Amino acid sequence: EADIYQTPRYLVIGTGKKITLECSQTMGHDKMYWYQQDPGMELHLIHYSYGVNSTEKGDLSSESTVSRIRTEHFPLTLESARPSHTSQYLCASSWTNTGELFFGEGSRLTVL
Amino acid sequence: AQKVTQAQTEISVVEKEDVTLDCVYETRDTTYYLFWYKQPPSGELVFLIRRNSFDEQNEISGRYSWNFQKSTSSFNFTITASQVVDSAVYFCALSEAHGQAGTALIFGKGTTLSVSS
Predict the structure, then answer these.
(1) Which of A65, A72, A92, A94 is most exposed, with minimal Cβ within 10 Å?
(2) Could you read off the pLDDT tens digit of each residue along chain A, which spans 112 residues?
(3) How wide is the angle at C-alpha A72 spanned by C-alphas A59 and A91, nearest 5°?
(4) Which residues in chain B touch residue A106, judged by CB atoms under 8 angstroms apart?
(5) Are B104 and A45 an interchain contact pair (Cβ–Cβ within 8 Å)?
């Protein structure tokens, strides 16, 4: 069973609020990822990191930002949430880019 | 550029039927990796299989089997004797080796499988 945790699982907030979605893994993986998924739709890569102090943007443009100060922690922040940010955000980690991804349970964000 | 196509958006079957989920991929790399993930209603993605581009042997794991054909760039997934618990969204994904660096997984749009009793 994967040891990767996301909080909060569900969040409903108003427009303009700043939010941080937390993601932690205890497997010592260097590679971590954030995917965005609308209900019933495909996953889109929005951010990834290959190690501490390394962050890159993914294929889907996102107004969110990420940081990687510690190996085990990869938080995602939205400075000013908007209704268009309503989605599910999935965090994942892996040993290598071409290996199995371990996913967290996801954070479902609703912005009113 | 890499791309994964799952042409079947939704499939509905009755329990005990066999069902095949199609996956077609595009890549310019000669070394790449293909994956299948299952996403049940709870939302968490569950890893099912990883296959590298040099291993074309088909694989069977219980009721699950995978057919990898490089000639047609396909990596199809078959569930034999389907069960209600198989109801989920199934995603095919691809990553390219790019030497040492590798690329993050790119997912197809998913196929929603509904198995009724």
Answers:
(1) A65
(2) 569 999 999 999 999 999 999 999 999 999 999 999 997 788 998 999 989 999 988 878 788 999 999 999 999 999 999 999 999 999 999 887 677 889 999 999 999 9
(3) 35
(4) 43-44
(5) yes
